[in-house]
Amino acid sequence: xxxxxxxxxxxxTSCDETGVGIVHGTTLLADAVASSxxxxxRFGGVVPEIASRAxxxxxxxxxxxxxxxxxxxxxxxxxxxxxxxxxxxxALLVGVSAAKAYAYALGKPLYGVNHLAxxxxxxxxxxxxxxxxxxxxxxxxxxxxxxxSSDITSDVRPMGATIDDAAGEAFxxxxxxxxxxxxxxxxxxxxxxxxxxxxxxxxxxxxxSRDPAYxxxxxxxxxxxxxxxxxxxxxGEDVPVRDVAASFQEAVVDVLTRKAVRACKDEGVDHxxxxxxxxxxxxxxxxxxxxxxRAGIRLRVPRPGLCTDNGAMVAxxxxxxxxxxxxxxxxxxxxxxxxxxxxxxxxxxxxHDHAHDHDHVHEVSKExxxx
Length: 371
Ligand code: KG4
Ligand code: ZN
Description:
single chain, 44% helix, iron
Protein backbone atom coordinates (compact mmCIF):
# COMPACT_ATOMS: atom_id res chain seq x y z
CA UNK A 1 0.00 0.00 0.00
CA UNK A 2 1.66 3.20 -1.17
CA UNK A 3 1.54 6.17 1.20
CA UNK A 4 0.20 8.44 -1.54
CA UNK A 5 -2.84 6.31 -2.29
CA UNK A 6 -6.17 8.09 -1.80
CA UNK A 7 -7.91 7.93 1.57
CA UNK A 8 -11.65 8.14 0.91
CA UNK A 9 -14.79 7.92 3.01
CA UNK A 10 -17.88 6.54 1.27
CA UNK A 11 -21.53 6.96 2.25
CA UNK A 12 -24.31 4.66 1.03
CA THR A 13 -28.01 5.28 1.74
CA SER A 14 -29.79 4.16 -1.44
CA CYS A 15 -32.03 1.60 0.29
CA ASP A 16 -32.27 0.38 3.89
CA GLU A 17 -28.62 0.19 4.97
CA THR A 18 -26.78 3.25 6.24
CA GLY A 19 -23.26 2.33 5.16
CA VAL A 20 -20.05 4.23 5.81
CA GLY A 21 -16.78 2.82 4.56
CA ILE A 22 -13.21 4.07 4.61
CA VAL A 23 -10.74 2.92 2.00
CA HIS A 24 -7.05 3.61 1.45
CA GLY A 25 -6.22 2.80 -2.17
CA THR A 26 -7.80 -0.64 -2.44
CA THR A 27 -7.40 -1.43 1.26
CA LEU A 28 -10.51 -1.49 3.43
CA LEU A 29 -9.98 0.32 6.74
CA ALA A 30 -13.56 0.48 8.03
CA ASP A 31 -16.99 -0.75 6.99
CA ALA A 32 -19.71 0.46 9.35
CA VAL A 33 -23.30 -0.48 8.53
CA ALA A 34 -26.51 0.34 10.37
CA SER A 35 -29.46 -1.50 8.87
CA SER A 36 -33.13 -0.69 9.27
CA UNK A 37 -34.08 -4.07 7.76
CA UNK A 38 -35.74 -5.25 10.99
CA UNK A 39 -38.07 -2.24 11.04
CA UNK A 40 -39.23 -3.11 7.52
CA UNK A 41 -39.61 -6.84 8.12
CA ARG A 42 -43.17 -6.65 9.39
CA PHE A 43 -44.20 -4.81 6.19
CA GLY A 44 -42.64 -7.49 3.97
CA GLY A 45 -40.51 -4.96 2.11
CA VAL A 46 -38.62 -1.70 2.48
CA VAL A 47 -40.81 1.28 3.41
CA PRO A 48 -39.11 4.37 1.93
CA GLU A 49 -40.18 6.87 4.63
CA ILE A 50 -38.99 4.59 7.42
CA ALA A 51 -35.68 4.07 5.60
CA SER A 52 -35.08 7.82 5.23
CA ARG A 53 -35.80 8.48 8.89
CA ALA A 54 -33.51 5.63 9.94
CA UNK A 55 -30.68 6.97 7.73
CA UNK A 56 -31.02 10.38 9.33
CA UNK A 57 -30.74 8.92 12.81
CA UNK A 58 -27.86 6.57 11.97
CA UNK A 59 -25.78 8.87 9.76
CA UNK A 60 -23.52 10.79 12.15
CA UNK A 61 -22.96 7.91 14.62
CA UNK A 62 -22.11 5.57 11.71
CA UNK A 63 -19.61 8.06 10.25
CA UNK A 64 -18.01 8.47 13.68
CA UNK A 65 -17.83 4.74 14.18
CA UNK A 66 -16.12 4.28 10.80
CA UNK A 67 -13.54 7.02 11.51
CA UNK A 68 -12.80 5.47 14.89
CA UNK A 69 -12.42 1.95 13.44
CA UNK A 70 -10.09 3.24 10.71
CA UNK A 71 -8.12 5.16 13.31
CA UNK A 72 -8.10 8.30 11.22
CA UNK A 73 -9.32 11.84 11.57
CA UNK A 74 -11.76 13.28 9.01
CA UNK A 75 -9.22 15.94 8.08
CA UNK A 76 -6.86 13.22 6.76
CA UNK A 77 -9.34 12.27 4.02
CA UNK A 78 -8.65 12.96 0.35
CA UNK A 79 -12.31 12.89 -0.58
CA UNK A 80 -15.88 12.08 0.40
CA UNK A 81 -17.81 9.75 -1.92
CA UNK A 82 -21.54 9.20 -1.77
CA UNK A 83 -24.13 7.19 -3.67
CA UNK A 84 -25.90 9.76 -5.88
CA UNK A 85 -28.22 7.12 -7.38
CA UNK A 86 -29.99 5.01 -8.39
CA UNK A 87 -32.13 4.22 -5.34
CA UNK A 88 -34.94 5.55 -3.17
CA UNK A 89 -35.06 9.34 -3.64
CA UNK A 90 -35.62 10.28 0.00
CA ALA A 91 -33.06 7.79 1.26
CA LEU A 92 -30.41 8.96 -1.23
CA LEU A 93 -31.06 12.55 -0.21
CA VAL A 94 -29.99 11.89 3.38
CA GLY A 95 -26.62 10.48 2.27
CA VAL A 96 -26.01 13.17 -0.34
CA SER A 97 -26.83 15.95 2.14
CA ALA A 98 -24.51 14.47 4.76
CA ALA A 99 -21.69 14.02 2.24
CA LYS A 100 -22.08 17.62 1.06
CA ALA A 101 -22.00 18.93 4.62
CA TYR A 102 -18.85 16.97 5.50
CA ALA A 103 -17.15 17.88 2.21
CA TYR A 104 -17.95 21.55 2.70
CA ALA A 105 -17.00 21.68 6.37
CA LEU A 106 -13.73 19.82 5.78
CA GLY A 107 -12.89 21.47 2.46
CA LYS A 108 -12.59 18.06 0.75
CA PRO A 109 -13.63 17.09 -2.80
CA LEU A 110 -17.04 15.42 -3.13
CA TYR A 111 -17.68 12.47 -5.47
CA GLY A 112 -21.27 11.54 -6.26
CA VAL A 113 -21.02 7.97 -7.53
CA ASN A 114 -23.27 5.33 -9.04
CA HIS A 115 -24.58 2.58 -6.77
CA LEU A 116 -24.22 -0.12 -9.46
CA ALA A 117 -20.65 0.79 -10.43
CA UNK A 118 -19.87 0.73 -6.68
CA UNK A 119 -21.20 -2.83 -6.41
CA UNK A 120 -18.66 -3.80 -9.09
CA UNK A 121 -15.73 -1.74 -7.78
CA UNK A 122 -16.00 -3.17 -4.25
CA UNK A 123 -14.32 -6.34 -5.48
CA UNK A 124 -11.05 -4.40 -5.67
CA UNK A 125 -11.01 -4.43 -1.87
CA UNK A 126 -10.91 -8.21 -1.91
CA UNK A 127 -9.23 -9.30 -5.12
CA UNK A 128 -7.17 -6.28 -6.20
CA UNK A 129 -7.56 -4.08 -9.28
CA UNK A 130 -10.38 -5.09 -11.60
CA UNK A 131 -9.24 -6.65 -14.85
CA UNK A 132 -10.20 -4.52 -17.84
CA UNK A 133 -12.57 -5.45 -19.29
CA UNK A 134 -14.67 -7.21 -16.64
CA UNK A 135 -18.18 -8.60 -17.08
CA UNK A 136 -20.35 -7.99 -14.02
CA UNK A 137 -23.52 -9.77 -12.99
CA UNK A 138 -25.30 -7.57 -10.42
CA UNK A 139 -28.13 -9.26 -8.62
CA UNK A 140 -29.94 -7.75 -5.66
CA UNK A 141 -33.39 -6.87 -4.39
CA UNK A 142 -33.47 -3.81 -6.62
CA UNK A 143 -31.50 -4.76 -9.70
CA UNK A 144 -30.47 -7.64 -11.96
CA UNK A 145 -28.14 -6.65 -14.73
CA UNK A 146 -25.24 -7.75 -16.82
CA UNK A 147 -22.73 -4.97 -17.28
CA UNK A 148 -19.48 -4.77 -19.22
CA SER A 149 -16.85 -2.35 -17.98
CA SER A 150 -13.46 -1.49 -19.42
CA ASP A 151 -12.84 1.20 -16.76
CA ILE A 152 -15.09 1.34 -13.72
CA THR A 153 -14.70 5.13 -13.39
CA SER A 154 -15.77 5.97 -16.92
CA ASP A 155 -17.14 3.08 -18.94
CA VAL A 156 -20.02 0.84 -17.88
CA ARG A 157 -22.04 -0.69 -20.69
CA PRO A 158 -25.37 -2.41 -20.08
CA MET A 159 -25.57 -5.81 -21.78
CA GLY A 160 -28.88 -6.92 -20.33
CA ALA A 161 -31.23 -6.48 -17.38
CA THR A 162 -34.39 -7.90 -15.89
CA ILE A 163 -37.54 -6.96 -17.75
CA ASP A 164 -39.68 -7.40 -14.62
CA ASP A 165 -38.67 -8.47 -11.10
CA ALA A 166 -35.14 -8.30 -9.74
CA ALA A 167 -33.63 -11.67 -8.75
CA GLY A 168 -33.65 -10.79 -5.04
CA GLU A 169 -37.23 -9.62 -5.31
CA ALA A 170 -38.18 -13.07 -6.60
CA PHE A 171 -36.47 -14.67 -3.58
CA UNK A 172 -38.32 -12.27 -1.26
CA UNK A 173 -41.71 -12.90 -2.89
CA UNK A 174 -41.41 -16.68 -2.87
CA UNK A 175 -40.30 -16.54 0.76
CA UNK A 176 -43.45 -14.60 1.52
CA UNK A 177 -45.65 -17.18 -0.21
CA UNK A 178 -43.91 -19.85 1.89
CA UNK A 179 -44.30 -17.73 5.09
CA UNK A 180 -40.55 -17.61 5.62
CA UNK A 181 -40.24 -13.90 6.42
CA UNK A 182 -38.21 -11.05 4.92
CA UNK A 183 -35.65 -10.86 3.38
CA UNK A 184 -36.20 -14.18 1.69
CA UNK A 185 -32.83 -14.89 0.09
CA UNK A 186 -30.86 -16.13 3.09
CA UNK A 187 -33.61 -18.46 4.39
CA UNK A 188 -34.32 -19.95 0.95
CA UNK A 189 -30.58 -20.47 0.48
CA UNK A 190 -30.45 -22.33 3.81
CA UNK A 191 -33.54 -24.50 3.22
CA UNK A 192 -32.52 -25.29 -0.36
CA UNK A 193 -29.42 -27.08 0.94
CA UNK A 194 -31.72 -29.77 2.33
CA UNK A 195 -33.97 -29.94 -0.74
CA UNK A 196 -33.80 -31.48 -4.20
CA UNK A 197 -33.17 -28.88 -6.95
CA UNK A 198 -34.58 -31.32 -9.53
CA UNK A 199 -37.76 -32.11 -7.58
CA UNK A 200 -39.91 -29.64 -9.52
CA UNK A 201 -39.19 -28.39 -13.06
CA UNK A 202 -39.85 -24.66 -12.74
CA UNK A 203 -39.60 -22.50 -15.90
CA UNK A 204 -36.38 -20.74 -16.98
CA UNK A 205 -37.42 -17.22 -18.02
CA UNK A 206 -36.37 -15.76 -21.39
CA UNK A 207 -34.38 -18.83 -22.30
CA UNK A 208 -35.84 -19.62 -25.71
CA SER A 209 -33.71 -19.34 -28.82
CA ARG A 210 -35.57 -16.21 -29.96
CA ASP A 211 -35.47 -14.50 -26.55
CA PRO A 212 -33.00 -11.69 -25.83
CA ALA A 213 -29.75 -13.41 -24.89
CA TYR A 214 -28.80 -11.30 -21.86
CA UNK A 215 -32.10 -10.09 -20.43
CA UNK A 216 -33.77 -11.74 -17.46
CA UNK A 217 -37.36 -12.33 -16.41
CA UNK A 218 -38.41 -13.73 -13.03
CA UNK A 219 -42.09 -12.88 -12.87
CA UNK A 220 -43.21 -16.00 -14.81
CA UNK A 221 -41.14 -18.17 -12.48
CA UNK A 222 -42.60 -16.44 -9.45
CA UNK A 223 -46.15 -17.07 -10.69
CA UNK A 224 -45.37 -20.69 -11.53
CA UNK A 225 -43.97 -21.34 -8.06
CA UNK A 226 -46.90 -19.58 -6.35
CA UNK A 227 -49.43 -21.62 -8.42
CA UNK A 228 -47.63 -24.86 -7.66
CA UNK A 229 -47.76 -24.12 -3.92
CA UNK A 230 -51.45 -23.10 -4.13
CA UNK A 231 -52.35 -26.31 -5.94
CA UNK A 232 -50.66 -28.39 -3.22
CA UNK A 233 -52.48 -26.48 -0.49
CA UNK A 234 -55.83 -26.71 -2.31
CA UNK A 235 -55.39 -30.48 -2.54
CA GLY A 236 -54.78 -30.56 1.21
CA GLU A 237 -51.23 -31.81 0.74
CA ASP A 238 -48.12 -30.67 2.60
CA VAL A 239 -45.90 -28.25 0.73
CA PRO A 240 -42.36 -29.71 0.49
CA VAL A 241 -40.77 -26.38 1.43
CA ARG A 242 -37.17 -27.54 1.02
CA ASP A 243 -37.76 -29.00 -2.44
CA VAL A 244 -39.68 -25.90 -3.56
CA ALA A 245 -36.86 -23.67 -2.26
CA ALA A 246 -34.17 -25.75 -3.96
CA SER A 247 -36.05 -26.04 -7.29
CA PHE A 248 -36.94 -22.34 -7.36
CA GLN A 249 -33.39 -21.31 -6.49
CA GLU A 250 -31.99 -23.63 -9.17
CA ALA A 251 -34.22 -22.01 -11.81
CA VAL A 252 -32.94 -18.55 -10.86
CA VAL A 253 -29.23 -19.35 -10.66
CA ASP A 254 -29.30 -21.57 -13.75
CA VAL A 255 -30.49 -18.66 -15.90
CA LEU A 256 -28.23 -16.07 -14.24
CA THR A 257 -25.05 -18.10 -14.65
CA ARG A 258 -25.85 -19.37 -18.15
CA LYS A 259 -26.48 -15.86 -19.48
CA ALA A 260 -23.47 -14.34 -17.70
CA VAL A 261 -21.10 -16.98 -19.09
CA ARG A 262 -22.63 -16.62 -22.53
CA ALA A 263 -22.08 -12.83 -22.46
CA CYS A 264 -18.43 -13.37 -21.49
CA LYS A 265 -17.91 -15.83 -24.33
CA ASP A 266 -19.67 -13.63 -26.90
CA GLU A 267 -17.64 -10.57 -25.90
CA GLY A 268 -14.36 -12.42 -25.44
CA VAL A 269 -14.18 -11.34 -21.78
CA ASP A 270 -12.37 -13.74 -19.46
CA HIS A 271 -13.27 -12.24 -16.07
CA UNK A 272 -16.72 -12.37 -14.50
CA UNK A 273 -17.57 -10.65 -11.22
CA UNK A 274 -20.81 -11.19 -9.35
CA UNK A 275 -22.11 -8.60 -6.90
CA UNK A 276 -25.26 -7.44 -5.12
CA UNK A 277 -27.09 -9.13 -2.25
CA UNK A 278 -28.02 -12.27 -4.21
CA UNK A 279 -24.31 -12.90 -4.86
CA UNK A 280 -24.28 -14.13 -1.26
CA UNK A 281 -26.29 -17.14 -2.48
CA UNK A 282 -24.25 -20.29 -2.01
CA UNK A 283 -25.71 -22.15 -4.99
CA UNK A 284 -25.19 -19.16 -7.29
CA UNK A 285 -21.54 -19.06 -6.25
CA UNK A 286 -21.04 -22.80 -6.74
CA UNK A 287 -22.74 -23.03 -10.13
CA UNK A 288 -21.01 -19.88 -11.41
CA UNK A 289 -17.66 -21.34 -10.34
CA UNK A 290 -18.40 -24.62 -12.11
CA UNK A 291 -19.56 -23.00 -15.35
CA UNK A 292 -16.78 -20.40 -15.41
CA UNK A 293 -14.13 -23.07 -14.92
CA ARG A 294 -15.56 -25.05 -17.82
CA ALA A 295 -15.48 -21.93 -20.03
CA GLY A 296 -12.00 -20.76 -18.98
CA ILE A 297 -13.37 -17.67 -17.24
CA ARG A 298 -11.95 -16.34 -13.95
CA LEU A 299 -14.71 -15.74 -11.42
CA ARG A 300 -14.50 -12.95 -8.82
CA VAL A 301 -17.12 -12.74 -6.09
CA PRO A 302 -16.56 -10.52 -3.05
CA ARG A 303 -17.32 -11.99 0.38
CA PRO A 304 -21.04 -11.77 1.25
CA GLY A 305 -20.61 -8.74 3.55
CA LEU A 306 -19.26 -6.72 0.63
CA CYS A 307 -21.97 -7.96 -1.78
CA THR A 308 -24.90 -6.45 0.11
CA ASP A 309 -25.23 -2.67 0.24
CA ASN A 310 -22.42 -1.05 2.23
CA GLY A 311 -20.32 2.10 2.44
CA ALA A 312 -17.06 0.35 1.58
CA MET A 313 -18.17 -0.11 -2.02
CA VAL A 314 -18.81 3.62 -2.36
CA ALA A 315 -15.44 4.44 -0.83
CA UNK A 316 -13.80 1.91 -3.18
CA UNK A 317 -15.21 3.66 -6.24
CA UNK A 318 -14.44 7.09 -4.77
CA UNK A 319 -10.85 6.02 -4.22
CA UNK A 320 -10.61 4.88 -7.84
CA UNK A 321 -12.09 8.23 -8.98
CA UNK A 322 -9.37 10.10 -7.07
CA UNK A 323 -6.64 7.73 -8.29
CA UNK A 324 -7.70 8.31 -11.90
CA UNK A 325 -8.06 12.06 -11.49
CA UNK A 326 -11.76 12.06 -12.31
CA UNK A 327 -13.45 15.43 -11.79
CA UNK A 328 -15.15 15.93 -8.41
CA UNK A 329 -18.85 16.71 -8.15
CA UNK A 330 -19.81 20.19 -7.06
CA UNK A 331 -21.74 21.07 -3.92
CA UNK A 332 -24.94 21.43 -5.92
CA UNK A 333 -24.86 17.65 -6.44
CA UNK A 334 -28.36 16.24 -6.21
CA UNK A 335 -29.57 12.71 -5.63
CA UNK A 336 -30.85 11.08 -8.82
CA UNK A 337 -33.13 8.13 -8.09
CA UNK A 338 -32.80 6.94 -11.68
CA UNK A 339 -29.14 7.74 -12.34
CA UNK A 340 -28.27 5.79 -15.52
CA UNK A 341 -25.95 2.83 -15.08
CA UNK A 342 -23.77 4.34 -17.82
CA UNK A 343 -22.76 7.23 -15.49
CA UNK A 344 -20.25 5.85 -12.96
CA UNK A 345 -20.14 9.27 -11.30
CA UNK A 346 -21.70 12.72 -11.45
CA UNK A 347 -19.00 15.25 -12.38
CA UNK A 348 -19.55 18.89 -11.43
CA UNK A 349 -21.41 21.21 -13.81
CA UNK A 350 -18.21 23.20 -14.44
CA UNK A 351 -16.51 20.14 -15.79
CA HIS A 352 -16.94 20.02 -19.56
CA ASP A 353 -17.23 16.59 -21.07
CA HIS A 354 -17.90 16.67 -24.82
CA ALA A 355 -19.11 13.10 -24.83
CA HIS A 356 -22.07 14.16 -22.68
CA ASP A 357 -23.02 17.42 -24.38
CA HIS A 358 -26.18 15.93 -25.74
CA ASP A 359 -27.39 14.68 -22.36
CA HIS A 360 -26.86 18.09 -20.78
CA VAL A 361 -28.99 19.81 -23.42
CA HIS A 362 -31.67 17.21 -22.85
CA GLU A 363 -31.59 17.68 -19.09
CA VAL A 364 -31.81 21.45 -19.30
CA SER A 365 -34.79 21.37 -21.63
CA LYS A 366 -36.56 18.83 -19.43
CA GLU A 367 -36.00 21.06 -16.41
CA UNK A 368 -37.47 24.07 -18.20
CA UNK A 369 -40.54 22.06 -18.98
CA UNK A 370 -41.37 21.61 -15.31
CA UNK A 371 -40.26 24.91 -13.80
O1 KG4 B 1 -27.78 -5.68 -2.38
P1 KG4 B 1 -28.84 -5.82 -1.35
O2 KG4 B 1 -28.42 -5.88 0.10
O3 KG4 B 1 -29.86 -4.64 -1.44
C1 KG4 B 1 -30.40 -4.20 -2.64
O4 KG4 B 1 -29.78 -3.30 -3.26
O5 KG4 B 1 -31.45 -4.75 -3.00
O6 KG4 B 1 -29.68 -7.12 -1.73
C2 KG4 B 1 -30.76 -7.59 -0.95
C3 KG4 B 1 -31.40 -8.77 -1.65
C4 KG4 B 1 -32.66 -9.26 -0.99
O7 KG4 B 1 -33.64 -9.44 -2.00
C5 KG4 B 1 -32.26 -10.60 -0.39
O8 KG4 B 1 -33.32 -11.54 -0.33
C6 KG4 B 1 -31.18 -11.05 -1.34
O9 KG4 B 1 -30.48 -9.87 -1.68
N1 KG4 B 1 -30.26 -12.01 -0.73
C7 KG4 B 1 -30.13 -13.30 -1.15
C8 KG4 B 1 -29.23 -13.93 -0.26
N2 KG4 B 1 -28.83 -13.00 0.66
C9 KG4 B 1 -29.48 -11.84 0.36
N3 KG4 B 1 -30.71 -13.94 -2.17
C10 KG4 B 1 -30.38 -15.23 -2.34
N4 KG4 B 1 -29.54 -15.91 -1.54
C11 KG4 B 1 -28.93 -15.30 -0.49
N5 KG4 B 1 -28.10 -15.98 0.29
ZN1 ZN C 1 -27.41 -2.58 -4.08
